[in-house]
Each structure stands twice: as structure tokens, then as C-alpha cells.
Amino acid sequence: MDALRYTLKRILLMIPILIGISMLTFFISNTIPGDPARLAAGPYADAKVIEELQEKMGLNDPVYIQYFRYMKSLLQGDLGNSNYSHQPVMEDIKQYFPATLELTFFSMFITILIGIPLGVISASKKDKIADQFARVLALIGVAMPAFWLGIILLLFFYLKLGVLPGSGRLDTGLAPPETITGMYTIDAILTGNWTVFTSAVIHLILPGITQAAVTIGMITRMTRSSMLEVLRSDYIRTAFAKGGSERRVLYGHALRNGMMPIMTLLGMTFGHSLGGSVLVESVFSWPGLGKYAVNAITYLDFPAVMAVTILIAVLFIIVNLVIDILYQVVDPRLNYE
Amino acid sequence: MKRKSILFKVMTMALILLLALTGCNKYNQDSATPAGGENKDQKNETPAEPQGSGNPEVFNFATNQDIPHLDPHGTAANTSFRVTYMLYDRLVTYDGTDTEVKPQIAEKWDISDDGLTYTFYLNKEAKFHDGSPVTAEAVQYSFTRAIDIGKSAAGQFHKVISKDSFEIVDDYTIKITLDQPFAPFLKTLGTVFANIVNPKLADNHGNDLGESYLADKEMGSGPYVLESWDRGQKIVLKANEDYWGEVPKLKTVNIMIVNEPSTARLMLEKGEVDLLDYTMLSPDVMKQMEGTEGIDIITQPGYQIDDIAINMEKKPLDNVKVRQALAYAVNYDSINNDILLGAGKRIGGIIPEGMFGYNPDVKQYDFDLDKAKALLEEAGLGNGFETEILISENNEVRKNIAVMMQSDLKKIGIDLKIKTLAWPTFLETVTSGGHQLALAAWTPDYADPDYNLWYFAHSSSKGPGFNLAFYENSKVDQLLEEGRKTVDEGRREEVYQEIQAIMSEEVPYIFPAQRLVQATQRSWVKGYEINPMNTWYVPFQKMTKE
């Protein structure tokens, strides 16, 4: 089977998964006690108004009919209107999702930049000081609650040193760049607006580090154990014996062979981060998808809940697919079976 | 040697990266010029205005409550009110700490002797943001739309007016005729629901009367215009330089969403934010901040009353002696001193002290467990009983009150269970009568006893109408109906005081405290006053910074 057919097959497999997820979400949401019409109408609306709204929102029909109606408009690309913001849910997502995407990219960048080299060093200096240092660092990263770490970073870098901003995506006085991707850094580059670019990057640092702390820990440990296994192989000894430089052997031979489990973990964390992290978003007032989803549930805004769930599911599946395809780039011996 | 160099390189790279990124900016009190190192590249942009304390014309307000949308007739969210009150004008308005209306678009008005017909004479200077005049037609259009949309705003008005109640006398005179006399009518016209919208909105009605169109736009005539809105981040308001009234001194108002109160507190201490939403910090955090240099804590009396609704349809709560016993078992002083840390006072009914109709002589139950125990025995429940109190989540103060009650009630044999629910579930449960006790709070939208008492005590308000005690008393019903129709203020006062007296004997509700409202601001902020009922109201249009 070639790569294309494999990809197509995987995409087709998405359909039953998505149907399952949409059904689960829809029916679970509907078991939450509370009346969406009551919330949409507001506190002083009287019974008649609420009844009219229930009718208008189709809440009087059996749940399965509501589900089919939802799926029908979903297939026509209509995610419905949010009861909360009065906007099409699509508009909401367009506003919140790029922020999450940007933060995820940034924190994954930090994770890869720090986590993998740290793991490699750890493995090559097994049980030496550098390894112990990396181990402690990884444990701290995994063990510290994101919320707490965020506040500590804020206290230090924002309040005490005053070198990094405390909240949001841009300085208060700056207007966001023209929306192209919705990611401020990318849009700023595309429009050549360097003031906004710098401000956007600076605002990414603290939330990025906070979000990356856990993943750096995990990736470091995973890289280390994967590398240790590879470093024991004969071909590594041969490579060293042939006089290959340490850097070349470690990064060129060993890391490439030990990459599989690392990639799997990276894929999982990436997909997970795309769902947004409520804690990090809260501490740094990052207007991301996590906060949006929590808000949607609080207001029984079912169209928004559905849209977020489906979006995250699709992304998760796609990320996993990309990782599966990348396996073959890393190890061409693999077959698409 | 080589091994060392790898570690060294990675560490140096990380360090350089961090320094390069952080070195560019200093987020000090006045983070005046963003990105100082990049000035060369700013050619084709206007340099950003200095923010925070550096600029007396820019005001940063932080809130942790997200803003759903900006349609004045469709929303019931306080955070939206705060914005729409600035974008739109009303016939009459509330200002400062005053709970009586003042003229705004209506220069003056006449009320007929029977209290049915109101004639408003509009200010001819008033203009919408697109330059068109605010006319009688706009007034009629706005109320008609509010009633047609049928949400919170309609709930306020449709008791006494309908779409046919309006008569346009001329461009600047409008007559509103009520279906029946309604003494507090004028006061309802100062609420956010009575905002006047530009009738040109009709061009964008779509199939929902423009609700989705107006969700993120404004078509008002107020002192501020909507500059931009980055959802979940900030709303920027700009002073309306052509405002028909006094042009605001704060030219830019940034309403920033800062989700986490501890972050907001840091920003205030740093001076990046000028004022925090009064709901953000809990009493104990404000206590800690007291005396911080450069920060003031403003305290003003509020009309918010904490209430415990006792569901009278549930046994044994239908027994008045049991309800009185519960009232004696609440440690009011401790709530005010230890939980609210002084930001509250005793209150005996749902009419707050300071408001028209308040009855100072109403019977107040003091904390007395012996009396409570005796009453329980009289009711035949000497061995106590089990009951449950509902609270909504994420409210530290309410949780603490419930826990305090739990331990006190235990001493007289009552086993109180505390159940915390998410807001929608809480709302659904209490309005459908699924609770035994429910702890909530109430702030009126306009200062008239009819407002509070009708919701709390009229039998037609049971459940969804917020009579959460499911209280029914024909005498009270009759008095309430009389009070609503009566125009004579003296008689009205008598009526409402009598209702409070009856209720304090029957105890459908227990009132733990009337709150003081406290907010934290930078000392350089001048002119911020908290309105006791519209506590969300921040008068940006007349505030200044020094």
C-alpha cells in the first residue's frame, strides 16, 4: 500500500470516530440539568418568553431529533449560533482558536528545543552530574502545578524584574495585526509590523514556558530512555570506533533511531495542547479555546460545546495521522500496513 | 572536551534566546514605548500611545467576567451593562451614587395626575454616532424592539407598556401611556434595558431583529464609541468627541479581561491597571492590600442583600416555628465580622437600608441557639432534622456562610448538607423548587421597593419569577398590587413597610447581610463612585486620572 492510499484510508476512518464523538458529546451535554432557553432569555424574562425560545431553539423535540438536525446543518458547514455571544460559533472559534494554536506552537518549540537536547545529554552522560541535573529539572517540570508555576513566574518576571508582561497577547495600547491566520506573530510578520511582532513574542514567553514545563519533563525522560537503548547497540559502538564525532553519532545516528517513541509522545502532547489549557489561559489571560469551552459548558451553550469537541477531535486525529506518516520519513523501512 | 561543548552550546543558546526576547522591553509602571529596540521599523505605524499611569487620558479597567455581547435589549450580563451604558443614552439616567433618575435625552417630562401618561421632551442636541438626531421615533423604535426581542429587557417593560403605548407628538416629543399606573415606571427608564438604539438598525434586522448584527457593534448616542473588541481580551472605547453632552476626559478606556484575580492584583500593584472590577477580589484579599502605597480601597454602601430562601413547600420548612428557629441559628455578627470582614451589616428584610420603603423597625432575629432549640421543640422537632442548602460554585463568601451555618445548626440538632452546583444547574433547581434552602444574593436594577418585594413575595413570582421561598400570602399579594398602582408616596411607604413586617414574622427568607461594595483602584483615579444598585457602573465619562 502506498502512502496516499494509506492516508486516504486513515481519513475515511475518521468518519465513524467523529460520528461517535459527536453523539457522545451531544447526548452527554443534554443530560446536564438546566434549561438553555432559560439562560438565554435572562433573569427577568417570563415563562411565555422562555417557552417561545424553547420552541425556537428546538428544545422541545426528542434529543435524537435535535441530534439529527444538528448533524444535518453541520454537514452543510453550519455550526449554529452561540446562545452566549449571539455570533455564529464559527466566528467565535476563529477568534479563540488561533490564540491556542499560537501558544501550542510556541510551547512545542520550547519543548523540542530544550527537551530533546536535554534528554540526549542526559543519556550520553548517564548518571553523571548533567544527567542528575536534567532528571531533577524534568521532575520539577512534571510535578509543579501549571497554575502555581505561572503565578511564580509572574511574580518574578513581571512584578519584580518588570521585564515580561503579565497578561494578554499584546501590549494594551497596540491593535492586533490584520487577521490572516489569527496568530499575531505570523500575521505581524506577514504584514511587516515588527512592533506588534515583538510584543506578541514577548507575551508568549511566560505562558509558553508554563505550558512547556510539563512537556519538557516528559520529553526529556522519554528521549533519555529511548537513547539509552539505542546507545547500547552495536552500530553506535561501530560509529564511535570509526571515529565519528560525538555530536554526529549522538544526533545523527542515535537520536534518529531513537526518535519513534519521542515523536509519538510529541504528537500526543501537541494534540492535547490544542484543546487549550484552562489553567495557563486563566493565569495569563490568554484568550484560548480552553477557557472558551469551559465558558460554553457553564452557559449550556451546546452549539459551542459541540463545535469545540469536534474541532479538537479532528485535530487530534490529524496530528496522529501526520505523526504516523512521519514515522516513515524517520524510518523508511516501515511499511504502511 | 567535545562533550562539554554540546552542553555549553545548548545552554548558551537558550540563554541568548531568553535574553534576546526579554531584553527588548521593560514592563514597568508606565510601559511607555512598546518594543524600545525596534524603533527603526515603526515608520509606517503610528507609535502606540503610552499606557497606564503615564497617560492621564488612557484608562485601564480589568474584569474577570467575560463580555457575552453588546446588544442592550438582549443581554442581562452586568459586564455588558457596563459597556452599553457608555455607548448608549437613555431618556433618563442614573449617575454617581444617586438612585434617583436624572434627565438625559429627555430634558424634562410631564406625568399626568392619574399616573398613566408620561410626556417626554427630548434634547434637540442629542445625536447618534452617525450624526443623525435622536428623535421620538428612535425612542419608540428602541422600546418596541426590546419588547419584541422578549428577553430580560422586555421582562422589565411589558408589565405596563406594550408596542401600542407610544404616541409620537412631534420629532422631539413622545407620549407613553401605561396600561395601569406603575409608580416606579420612570425609574425603569434609567436602566440599561432602556438604552436608545439608532433606528437605522432596522436595515440590519435579518431574521432576529438585528440581535446577531448588534452583538459586536453599537448604534448609540453615548459619550463613548466602540473602537475595537478582541474577544476574550479587551474592549477599547474611545471618547465621542462630538458628544452632545460633556465630552469625557478619559479619551481611551481599555476594558481588559484578566481571568485570574491574582494576576489582576499584580497588574494593579504594578500600575498597569487603574481599577479592578469590584467583584474580583475577595474581602480577605482586599484586607491584605489595605495600606499598599498607591492603591485605594473604596467602600460604599450597596443595595446587595444576601438571602437564604426557605422553600415553604418542603416539610418541615412549611412550619413557621422551624423557619424562625433557623433564623435564630444564623450567626449574623460573625458573618459580618469574620467572613465579610466588616464589609456588611445587619438587615431584617429585602429592602436595603437607604432605599425608599426601608422599614427600620422590622423584627430582626439575633443569633440565639437556645431560642432556636426551644422553637424546634415547640414544633415537635426537638431531635432535629436533616436539610440541605444549595449554593452556586466559585463563591468563597457563600461557601463560608454555608459552612458556618452547618456548624451552628449542628448544635441544635439540625444536620445541614451543603450542595454546590454550577450556575445553570443552580438556577434550574431553585426556580423549579427542587431546593430546601438556597443561598443567593439580590441587587435591584432600580431603587423601588416594588422591584425587590414583587420578585421575592408575590405569589405570581413563585419559581422562575424568583420567589424562591414559594411564599404565598394573600394579604401580601394584595398590598403589593396596591403599592404598584398607588401614586402617593406616603401611602406606598406604609404599604411596603407593612409587607416587610409581615414577612419578618413569617420568615420565608433569612437575610445574612446587606453588603458594602468595595473596589480597589490606583490612588490617581479620581471621580469613581459606586452606585449602590448599579454596582457594575463605572462612570468613565466623568472620571479623570492625575
TrEMBL record, chain A:
Residue ranges crossing the lipid bilayer per the database entry: 12-32, 103-124, 136-159, 200-219, 262-284, 304-327
Keyword Acyltransferase: no
CDD domains: TM_PBP2
UniProt keyword terms in alphabetical order: Cell membrane, Membrane, Transmembrane, Transmembrane helix, Transport
PROSITE patterns assigned: ABC_TM1 (PS50928)
Family annotation (InterPro entries): BPD_transp_1_N, MetI-like, MetI-like_sf
One Gene Ontology term, aspect cellular component: plasma membrane
Major place of residence: membrane
Coiled coil: none
All residue ranges annotated as the ABC transmembrane type-1 domain in the record: 97-323
Gene Ontology process terms (BP): transmembrane transport
Membrane topology qualifier: Multi-pass membrane protein
Locations listed in the record: Cell membrane
Pfam families membership: BPD_transp_1 (PF00528), BPD_transp_1_N (PF19300)
UniProt superkingdom: Bacteria
Family the entry assigns: Belongs to the binding-protein-dependent transport system permease family.
Protein name: Peptide ABC transporter permease
Lineage of the species this protein comes from: Bacteria, Bacillati, Bacillota, Bacilli, Bacillales
